[in-house]
Amino acid sequence: MTGRSDRTRELMVTQAFNTIWTAVFFVIFIIPTAMVLRVAGKDPLNLRPGPQTSTYWVDCRHRRQS
């Protein structure tokens, strides 16, 4: 039977591993993908307004259908 201290240690190791794994995943996959998209001039989230747009508001009737 495992004691309470063993469970606490397992929880701490799990949290540390998850934090490290998330950071590694972000650095290896997310950052390079974002850099390539930025260099290519892509805006997949449509965050930049058009030159004649005065607001960031997007009316739900005019959204693109997926």
From TrEMBL:
Q: What does the organism's lineage look like at the top?
A: Bacteria, Pseudomonadati, Pseudomonadota, Alphaproteobacteria, Rhodospirillales
Where does the chain cross the membrane? 20-40
This protein's UniProt keywords:
Membrane, Transmembrane, Transmembrane helix
Q: What is this protein called?
A: Uncharacterized protein
